[in-house]
Predict the structure.
Amino acid sequence: MIDFVAPTIDWAAVSPVLVVLAAGVLGVLLEALVPARARRSVQLVLTLGALAGALVAVALLWGRVQEAALSVVGGSYLLTPFGLGVQAVVVVCALLGVLVVADRPGGQDAFAPTAAAVPGSTYEEQARRAGLEQTEVYPLVLFATGGMMLFPATDDLVMLFIALEVLSLPLYVLCATARRRRLLSQEAAAKYFLLGSFASALLIFGVALLYGFAGSVRLGAIAEALAGQGASPLAGMDVLALAGVLLVVAGLLFKVGAAPFHAWTPDVYTGAPTPVTGFMAACTKAAAVGALVRFLFTLAEGMDAGTRHGVEVVLWTVALLTMVVGTVVGVVQTDIKRVLAYSSIAHAGFVLVALVGFSETGAAAVLFYLLAYGLATVGAFAVVTVVRERLTTPVPDAEHGAASAASDTLLGEATHLAQWAGVGRKAPWLTAAFALFLLSMAGIPLTAGFIAKFGAFSAAVDAGAWPLAVAGVVASAVAVFFYVRVIVLMVLTPPADELVPDGGAPDGGAPEAAGTDAGPDAGAAAHAVGGGAPTGTLTAAPAATRTVVTVVTTPGPAALVVALCAAGVLLLGLLPASVLDLAGQAAKFVP
Amino acid sequence: MTFPWLTALIVWPLLAALATALTGVGRGRPAATGTGAGRFGGTAARVVALAGALVEVLLLVGAFTAFDTTRAGEHQLAETHDWIPAIGASYAVGVDGVGLLLVALSVGLVPLVILAAWREQGGDDSRLRRYLAVVLVLEAFMVAVFAARDVFLFYVLFEAMLIPAYFLIGGFGQGAQRRYAAVKFLLYSLAGGLIMLVAVIALYLQVPAAERGPRTFLTENLTGLELGTTEGRLMFAAFFLAFAIKAPLVPVHSWLPDVAENATPGTSTLLVCVLDKVGTFGMLTLCLPLFPEASRWAAPFVIVLAVVSILYGAILAIGQSDLLRLVGYTSVSHFGFIVLGIFTFTSLGTSGSSLMMLNHGISTGALFLVAGFVIARHPARSQRIADYGGLRTVAPVLGGTFLVAALSAAALPGLATFVSEVMVFLGAFGRAPVAALVAVPAVVLAAVYVLLTYQRIFTGTVPAHLGGDAAREATDDGTPPLEDTVSRTREDAPVRDLDARERTVAGVLVGALLVLGLVPGLALRYVDAPGQVAVELVGESDPPPVLGAQPVDARPTEGSLS
Amino acid sequence: MTNPYVPVLVLMAVAAVLALGGVAASAVIGPKRYNRAKLEAYECGIQPTPQATGGGRLPVKYYLVAMTFIVFDIEVVFLYPWAVSFAWLAGFGLVAMLVFLALITVPFVYEWRRGGFDWV
Amino acid sequence: MPITNYLVLAGILFAIGATTVMLRRNAIVVFMGVELMLNATNLAFVTFARIHGDLTGQVLAFFVMVVAAAEVVVGLAIIVTIFRTRRSASVDDVNLLKG
Amino acid sequence: MIPGVAADFSQDTFVTYLVKAVLIIVFLLTSVLVAIWFERRVVARMQVRPGPNVHGPFGLLQSLADAMKLLLKEDVNVTAADRIVYLLAPMVSVFCSLLVFAVVPFGPEVTIPFTDFTTPAQLTDFPVAVLYVLACASLGVYGIVLGGWSSGSTYPLLGSVRSTAQVISYELAMGLSLVSVFILAGSMSTSTIVEGQQSIWFFLPLLPAFVVYVISMIGETNRLPFDLPEAEGELVSGYMTEYSSMKFAWFFLAEYINMLNVSAIATTLFLGGWRAPWPLSAVGDGVLNTGWWPILWFLAKVWLLMFVFVWVRGTLLRLRYDQFMVFGWKVLIPVALAWVVVLAVVQWFRLDAGVSRTVLVAVILGVGLAAVALVSLWPDRRRSPEHDDAGPGSEAGTAPSSAPGTVDAFAGGYPVPPLPGQSLPPSPRAGRRPVEHVPAGGAGPDTPHDDVEEGAR
């Protein structure tokens, strides 16, 4: 038997991922050992520290990677400049995302006190009143981030698969943990899970076919086999290879959220707790696109003209379809989170446009695009978390016959577009930031989104895919419509929500969800009000109860995130030079 | 290093806008409208904005002094800094004569617009404050876009301008359909702009990869590229489409009347008189030099379009019942003239067009603003021409200024527009006599719509809701101005003549029309050389003189026409 | 060399014959004197419910056991190959497996502390 | 028996699994479809390993099993949570989110 | 030769397989008959009563009579049952239990008398034989679960659920304890493992693992004190409540075969398999380890373990369900896990670091002694007098009878109930595991484990 040779591991190269995952593990341990009172702060420090550490590690590795890609354990972990670039984007977005997660607008975070409790049960109510918090969220976010960082940094398809699962599984769980609209949230998690696991099954079957074709799961080896240099007995079966490539691409496109694999996106984005949605939208997309680039660009080296053409046709179709679906369906949405979800689909299409040429220009453009999109998205969802419904109950004072000060209870997010009317008057700065994010997503010049789209379309034109670029341009024009519609609503339309009476759910789309949502909280309101008041007051009160839209102005981490993202979006729009340089450096994707 | 006049001109309005917005800081005393007017009250915003705009005018004067008219064909006051080296874009500003005139137009009109808007926005101070701030932001963009010497920068500003413009139309308009108009405007412009984006990218990629540097996007670097015929024509088409939408040429003009109808007159002034000049300015400074071959190839089509625009705009203007919409259609007609002049490829036509851009701005601005004054006098602010009559008798100054402004739209000799229109005609006769001949009736049509409108509004009997015959007495007894909400619904509201503020606005514009009409040389010094440069760049030479016109360099001849 | 699994198949066949045969035999041989009470479910003499308690579904608590089991079963799955080639993998394998075990221990501790192993 | 038969079997199983996912509405059944797909993958891996005469495929099958187990844990948790709330595991009943 | 397997099956033919298979079945069936008799007799002895003694000598034929009776019983199929599964379940159970012996080595190579045909006393063996055993055992649970579930009745359902939880809980501990055997033997083939126990039987160096295995094997087979799935006092008859006739017999049979199975595996993996015990193994230069002798040793060991089963049953009380699960998860698994780590480290020292066995044993003994000393000397805070003074109502441990109002129930040598006005002292076990009071709203099987008090801590 051959002697076993222990591999030498370049720990420095793995450090960004390692720091994050180790912190995740440590977080679980802390969750078990630290008393509940201190958990949140400890977890927060750990999480932010780990992500900051990962960022530092990425920065330290940057120079080293430029010289040569770092390969660990024979390519199971392969750090290319591009991979490192994606890791940087992921970490930055995750850092911002975690801050939003940590925010407690109105004193409560966005997560269920105990996600396992049956919605509406006594037990849940007890937990809520005890002020419990599900601090497991932080380790979960860390695990997901770790998976995302691993995703684009491997040469090994099975590692790719595992990274996919490591990033997906925590996200499935996170989706189910919303504090309000829990049924919606659980449903979103179930859908995400079922479709997600379906996609990963497709991916792994594709991997199996590629393994059969090349006799290896290393991308490099597969590319060689495609080029006809492999020694595999099945190397002649190009059908196997093409089917494998397409299945893997399908799995990856699912995570990217490209049509026709986009069906989960709107539902999941709507149902998941908003901070998680922001995190997920920004980071997952970045990681998945990174992996897609890694996979396709490497294999494209070895493909013959026919296979390559086949893959390109698929990419073209998907990109076109994605842009069309994202923009056209997005136009008719009435829920802000769904609007953002469809926008994310459309963006997936734009990113795909950038990479059809399999060129370094494309890779650089993709990186910049991911960063620009990530900042805008995290920021936008952070804004969504603070625009809330408020239940106002004027408490009539029976003795004096006059209504005293109204008592307020903060409800869930006001996600229906109609409720966003006139938000601009309530919170001008927040609205300005949100408008900036939307304009950036629309690709209006002087924002990051424009430079990003410019890069993406230039890459496409450069690769000769100018019809795709034109289509992208047209899609952007349509997309502008729905972004601008939201801005109009916020800035130009007077608020109309004062007229919405309580009782009927203000959110017409989801009566049941709103019921379970408002139910316990309304009860809580009654409790809060009824501290020492006679019951008569309580029974009289609901008649005057109204739901209004409010913007939580308490300065929390989310406000910081919004400010940072807005600054980032503007800065990337006005002075993108240095970041573009970095993206250019990171565009080398093949060792 | 000389003083960066252009950068100052760009940055100052932004600062002024910020200052204007900041006057709203704090709750202020609760105003009647319920919205806080800010700690400094409502007037502060007006004063700050006006002062900012006036300082900007001073800066403009400085820029003029620094501009060397003997080299008007070259870009002067130039500044170039790296901006995004990775994609070859730089911050490069500089103006030739035409650019400078258009900058002047923007800077000059803004204080007038601010002054004209003094009592607008329904007495809502915070709304007015925002309006003024946005106007100032738009001013910065307009100056920057006329000064941009980098295609990428130009494009960025070209698109970025849409956002403030959109808010001006949709947010502060007065028409019932203002949001529809705003969206229409935005989508038209964006569609054109985005198609242009593809061409911008494609153009950039025509530069051989080895030669792409941090300043590739500079206009001079992109000029004279070896383009394939098809590529060149496609890119030309994309650029031209964007500019044609902006400077409304006929098939894609339909947003303009809607906007004119629904926006405030001030907004329309900025939009139609300045912003849309970006379109023709772009044709002149980008389409021609970048794609000479394609320009020559497309010239016949463009000329046809231009002529159609001229006639179509004029004819439709006659049929309009809405005053502002009518002004909008006259502009369509005028833009036709400008485009016609540019695509004659004669230095006479080109410089005539350049001049006409300036003159049209002043003339149409005057028309819009004065029309705004007219409308402000209607108790229900009706824009229907049929709702007016006999105003000449009750408001003679108003009638007079309107008449001058209207006649300038019809290019009456002695007014500024006449010079430029004649130059365009002369240029067109040299290159495309048929087109010129076909366009000539437009002059007659213009006279028709101008006079017809004047007649319907200012002559005849005063309708009852404008105060009827008793109006003259009522005007003098010091009743509060019509703008006040209290008197708005009164059936017998009297009509008073222009007050000092309005006289200032109208006076400046009418004065400018007269001065430029009588001494066109003042402006011609700036447009002649760029016109020649443009013709050279497009690879044509001036045709032999036709119809006894003097050679191009005989500038005194042009002057003598006054 | 024959396939070492063939004998297993043979044994399976014999076992299957036995298992089936026994039940079949009793069905044939045994008396058949049914009545309704005999065919009802047994509830210690009281009237039986039409269905088992909880709709015939397993209580949720057991899913927890099942999930925990899966986690640890996976651990064992990895331990076996490592154990078999322990000598070959030497120090590297040991360290790797210790890390792995430590990682598995973390959720174990977590579940323990959170009462996952407490049956009320 | 040629070894490619195993591949065909794997393909058929995979197709059955995929069809189940797309056609059935019960969450548990859909989930089982996914599991079937994963197991088909395992079969393919092992068969390919046999064809190539190396162990990689078998090791990969291991990994897939582990991941499948992890998916089971998370998936069952989510489905059970929903079931406790709604007393049903049909995807059709899960309809708060349109489209 | 099969790679990785010590035994040599190269001469075997299909006929050999068939004969061996039938022999295994016959062996198992007779063994079960004997085992039932054996159990009843031994338990009876322990309980000072005769046990079966009517049919045949010493009542040996009692089991046979029972079997015949079952065969002739009426075959009742319950109406509420899910028919196919209901029928299938007992067959699955017995089928799976019959398969395990395929890889158990009864002995080394034997020569068939009157021929020169040599074959291992084992049906077959392969490199992952133990995995196969575990697989069969796990599949066997399906019989129980499906049987309980398909009966459509409450008691069987509860029984089957318990059975699942029990089996999977204890299977982990069992699997972990096997790891140490594989580390020592470097193989999962049964014959190779027996081969590896030439010098020392594994139960000695792997004593903790062996103990864990024995405990969990009792749990695996649902035997007292772990017979919760069929606890008569609680669940009538557990998962087989609704079964009668041969279907019931198959469950019964499967349970006893499983006992034999786990005993045989324990023998093979820990007790040296067919090897003769120490003094005998030295006789005649190991002659007792050849020929047919090993089968004797093997059976002896198996039956020794069977005796342990019976002994435990006769001695211990059935655990409460929660105690049972807590024991499995909180004691057995951590211990097994810790043992694997310790063994792996020690083994690494031995193999790679070159530390000699003597030194190792000395160090381990030293560490062990130190640990024991530490544990015994560690101040027990809970029972310490200071603590007792501080805590109200915790004077139980010091002097129960001294407290006023409490009565020493055992004062007369046998327990008596307290009279009115008297109260019993708190149970000495009460301090060990404080009973957590859960509010009524939070109790029940479907409340999350992270209860409110815990979380608010």
Notes: Residues 299-474+494-562 of chain B form one domain. The first helix of chain B runs from residue 5 to 22. The radius of gyration of chain B is 23 Å.
